[in-house]
């Protein structure tokens, strides 16, 4: 058998098992071998019957004395048997397996592994793993450290184990090693053939750990190799516009700003200028906490693009943010004769050919902008933008430079592996003079008190508040159910804050309605804005000083941090109030930590990257064996990937290729 063979070539795997295996994404022999146990049971110690104790995981071997079918009072079919060794007898039972009575006739030698519990006042092995034994043949399911697989689609661990054993016996693993001996030694790796055996049938805990490390190493290594190869190909085959940056022009722009750029901003701008000099398109991810000043970095880049005679396209996640960018860019560009245009769904007229900077939502821009002459695309508040999406931007095979910006602080190692074809820039500093938003965690019994405090802050100081309700459904877009629940909350809060003007904002409102509500909030004719998390990114309302979040535990830390970033933008002292019936570690961290990066790292540790970054939703691959939190291995494999790319790998390796 070869590792690339389909599972149908494994004995006893017919069409129905093939279907079940396909559900686990197991299509080939190697897929089966790489479906690794998710835990192990240690049955390696064989006990004599007289020594076994209730509650222990044990293995015994003996002879079947008797076995009969019985029916319980509730009508369940039960197989009850007695096993004997030279030291004593023990009761064994199974349920609903009447065929066992014929298979395990008296006199059969048998080995059983399981936990000893009680039955009818006596110790008994209930539903143990078992196998009929022959002298001189090692056991597969009992008497070992036994792998337990995630059992879905009706495939038992026992079945999987026996098929894996079959495959391991009839496959030549000796030619699989593809890493040179020095690398194995340097990283303390076991050979790949040993790893494949040991991951399924380890002799010790250490064996299984080393096997897991080796297979995780392989998985990450090929992930890196894949993306480096893709990136190199993209750089070789996709030309872009060379952008010249004149020092005096840059100085002129800097001088026009109402503030001094932070050191971080200057550093990132230099990185972008270096990208502009290359012959292939920039693909840079700019990470920066809320308020770190990403917009002005993008503005300077578009200014240089303009000076070189090209256009910039600015994509925002929502129409509201597009409008806001339109305003701030107009302000930043006012001395330079740069024509900025807002692309709206309302305006039927074709996008003007004379505009230098076009701003709109992703969808609008795709539909209405002629991409020739576009030298730079800026994508705001997003962290996924792979080769596939970028290929849409290609015009006459020339690609614009791309700058993606996000406030979601993905740890560097993960970012570079997930988005390996990106370069990464980080704005580490927040401009001076920003205030820290005082954050309180408020239990239900203090809810009324908090409401009266908010009410009096509005009365006394003319402040404004956001009240954010979580989405009910776990989907990305708002559903009608979400809208209904925010409306219910809005009606309640209107009653709580009787003397105040309460407004409502949710994602299912028409754009024009949303704008109207936000305008009223800006004009202060609304005191309290009740909203779904649509206000999460970017909205700038300096007079709003209170961010109130309902049922805060339902939000991720990055999201809470984003929401909190909506206040504290003006001179007035600002507050974030988290309502929660539970005092969780995550929510407590919000009251103590004000760095988005730290919060995101904590969230990652507590909830895992799948939850935090919505890996599935964003179409990123889940790792099968390695873990996104294993930064050490991610770093190691990234180095090795670069090493081995220069020295082609030997041995067979196509069996381990990651699937897209
Ligand atoms: P974000 O990174 O969250 O997109 P913005 O680009 O919207 O942040 O910047 C937030 C605010 O900080 C804006 O009002 C902007 O004018 C201001 N700002 C940006 N850079 C600086 C700086 N170096 N010094 C002071 N204020 C700055
Ligand atoms: Mg922004």
Can you describe this structure?
With 660 residues, this protein is of the alpha/beta class. The protein folds into 3 domains: 45-143, Nucleic acid-binding proteins (OB fold (Dihydrolipoamide Acetyltransferase, E2P)), CATH 2.40.50.140; 238-427, Rossmann fold (3-Layer(aba) Sandwich); 438-613, 3-Layer(aba) Sandwich (Rossmann fold), CATH 3.40.50.300. Helices cover 37% and strands 19% of the residues. The chain has a 7-stranded parallel sheet with strand order 11-12-10-13-14-9-15, with helices on both faces. A hairpin with a 2-residue loop joins strand 3 (77-85) and strand 4. Helix 6 packs across helix 7. The longest helix is centred in the middle third of the chain and has 33 residues, at 205-237. It is globular, with a radius of gyration of 32 Å. The protein starts with 14 loop residues before the first helix and ends in a 14-residue tail after the last helix. Residues 259-262, 265, 288, 290-296, 407, 431 line the site of adenosine-5'-diphosphate.
């Amino acid at each position: 058998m070869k590792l690339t063979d389909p599972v149908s070539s494994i004995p006893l795997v017919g069409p129905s098992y093939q279907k079940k295996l396909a559900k686990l994404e197991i299509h080939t022999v190697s897929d089966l071998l790489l479906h690794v146990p998710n835990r192990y049971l240690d049955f390696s110690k064989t006990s004599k019957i007289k020594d076994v104790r209730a509650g222990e995981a044990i293995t015994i071997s003996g002879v079947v004395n008797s076995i009969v079918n019985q029916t319980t009072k509730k009508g369940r079919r039960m197989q009850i048997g007695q096993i004997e060794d030279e030291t004593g007898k023990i009761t064994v039972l199974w349920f609903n397996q009447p065929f066992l009575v014929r298979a395990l006739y008296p006199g059969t030698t048998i080995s059983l592994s399981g936990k000893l519990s009680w039955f009818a006042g006596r110790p008994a092995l209930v539903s143990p793993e078992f196998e009929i034994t022959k002298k001189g043949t090692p056991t597969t399911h009992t008497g070992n450290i036994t792998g337990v697989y995630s059992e879905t689609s009706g495939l038992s661990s026992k079945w999987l184990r026996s098929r894996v054993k079959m495959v391991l016996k009839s496959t030549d693993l000796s030619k699989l090693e593809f890493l040179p001996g020095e690398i194995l030694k340097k990283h303390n790796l076991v050979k790949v053939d040993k790893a494949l055996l040991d991951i399924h049938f380890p002799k010790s805990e250490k064996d299984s750990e080393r096997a897991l490390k080796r297979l995780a190493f392989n998985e990450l290594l090929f992930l890196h190799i894949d993306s480096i190869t893709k990136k190199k190909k993209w750089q070789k085959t996709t030309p872009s516009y060379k952008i010249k940056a004149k020092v005096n022009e840059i100085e002129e722009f800097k001088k026009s700003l109402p503030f001094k750029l932070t050191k971080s901003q200057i550093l990132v701008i230099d990185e972008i200028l270096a990208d502009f000099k290359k012959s292939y398109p920039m693909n840079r991810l700019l990470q920066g906490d809320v308020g770190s000043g990403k917009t002005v970095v993008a503005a300077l880049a578009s200014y240089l693009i303009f000076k070189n005679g090209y256009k910039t396209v600015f994509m925002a996640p929502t129409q509201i943010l597009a409008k806001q960018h339109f305003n701030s860019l107009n302000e930043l560009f006012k001395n330079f004769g740069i024509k900025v245009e807002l692309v709206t769904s309302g305006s039927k007229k074709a996008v003007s050919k004379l505009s230098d900077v076009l701003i709109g939502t992703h969808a609008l821009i795709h539909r209405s902008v002629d991409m020739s002459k576009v030298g730079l695309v800026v994508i705001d508040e997003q962290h996924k933008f792979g080769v596939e999406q970028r290929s849409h931007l290609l015009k006459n095979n020339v690609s614009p430079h791309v700058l993606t910006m996000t406030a979601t602080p993905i740890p560097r190692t993960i970012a570079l592996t997930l988005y390996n074809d990106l370069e990464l820039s980080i704005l580490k500093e927040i401009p001076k003079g920003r205030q820290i938003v005082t954050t309180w965690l408020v239990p239900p019994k203090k809810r009324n008190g908090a409401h009266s405090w908010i009410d009096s802050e509005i009365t006394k100081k003319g402040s404004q508040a956001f009240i954010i309700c979580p989405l009910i459904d776990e989907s990305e877009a708002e559903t009608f159910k979400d809208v209904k629940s925010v409306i219910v909350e809005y009606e309640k809060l209107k009653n709580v804050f009787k003397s105040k003007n309460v407004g409502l904002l949710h994602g299912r409102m028409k754009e024009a309605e949303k704008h109207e509500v936000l305008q009223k909030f800006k004009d202060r004719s609304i005191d309290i804005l009740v909203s779904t998390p649509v206000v999460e990114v970017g909205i700038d309302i300096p007079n709003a000083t209170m961010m109130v979040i309902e049922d805060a535990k339902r939000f991720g830390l990055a999201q809470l941090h984003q929401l909190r970033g909506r206040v504290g933008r003006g001179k007035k002292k600002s507050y974030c109030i988290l309502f929660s019936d539970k005092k969780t570690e995550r929510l407590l961290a919000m009251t103590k930590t004000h760095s988005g990066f730290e919060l995101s790292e904590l969230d990652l540790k507590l909830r895992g990257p799948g939850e935090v970054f919505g890996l599935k939703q964003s179409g990123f691959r889940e790792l099968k064996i390695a873990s996104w939190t294993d930064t050490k291995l991610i770093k190691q494999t990234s180095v090795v990937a670069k090493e081995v790319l220069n020295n082609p790998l030997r041995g067979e390796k196509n069996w381990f290729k990651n699937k897209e």
